[in-house]
Amino acid sequence: MTKRVAILISGGGSNMVSLVDSMTGDHPARPCLVLANSAGAGGLAKAEARGIPTAVVDHRPYKGDRQAFEAELARVIDATEPDILCLAGFMRVLTEGFVSRYRGRMLNIHPSLLPKYRGLHTHARALEAGDPDHGCTVHEVTPELDEGPILGQARVPVLAGDTPDTLAARVLVEEHKLYPTVLRRFAAGDRTPVFLP
Ligand code: GRF
């Protein structure tokens, strides 16, 4: 049975595009929704250009009332009956209640080799630490931020002269390979972690 995938974004949605464009042919999943927490998210137009249903649930009217925001988020998401949720550059922290609702079927991509560098500014932190390499991780989402079971990682070398921006760009190229690879396995019921290269 083809799995239905809802993808949550906040910005340009390059990871969303990679995921959507990977779900073709004998892939066990298809996108059913791209949802953004802002009408200004550039990824919405990319999803619409691909014929994917889109929605916006703006967090700002809820003025910090996370429960109310997440109740609307869940209502819109559940109306499309997804089997899997993919957070792809979604920049809102989700409460335990929301995460528990989708536990075991919600994925996220984080731009570091977890468990290193949970949270923000991961590329700058890796450079400051003088790490020889860096990368990205796809993990199942659990209530603890960036802590869930790892489903895949992609590693890149840190090069002399790297800035946070040049390192982020190199990692992003790998994100676009890793996330679709993990999603295809996950949708087929395979949770064996993937390590690239
Ligand atoms: C990516 O670096 C991803 O790792 C992080 O958000 C960034 C935005 O990616 N979660 P996208 O172009 O919006 O998919």
Q: Could you characterize the architecture of this molecule?
A:
With 197 residues, the chain is of the alpha/beta class. The chain has a single domain (3-191), classed as Formyl transferase, N-terminal domain (Rossmann fold), CATH 3.40.50. 34% of the residues lie in helices and 23% in strands. The protein contains six helices and eight strands. The chain has helices at residues 14-22, 43-49, 66-78, 96-101, 122-129, 164-187, and strands at residues 3-9, 29-36, 54-56, 84-87, 106-110, 133-140, 150-157, 194-196. It has an eight-stranded mixed β-sheet, covered by helices on one side. Helix 1 runs parallel beside helix 6 (164-187) and helix 5 (122-129) crosses helix 6 (164-187). The longest helix has 24 residues, at 164-187. It is globular and about 50 Å long. It starts with a strand and ends with a strand. The chain binds 5-O-phosphono-beta-D-ribofuranosylamine. Residues 9, 11-16, 88-89, 109, 111, 136, 172, 175 line the site of 5-O-phosphono-beta-D-ribofuranosylamine.
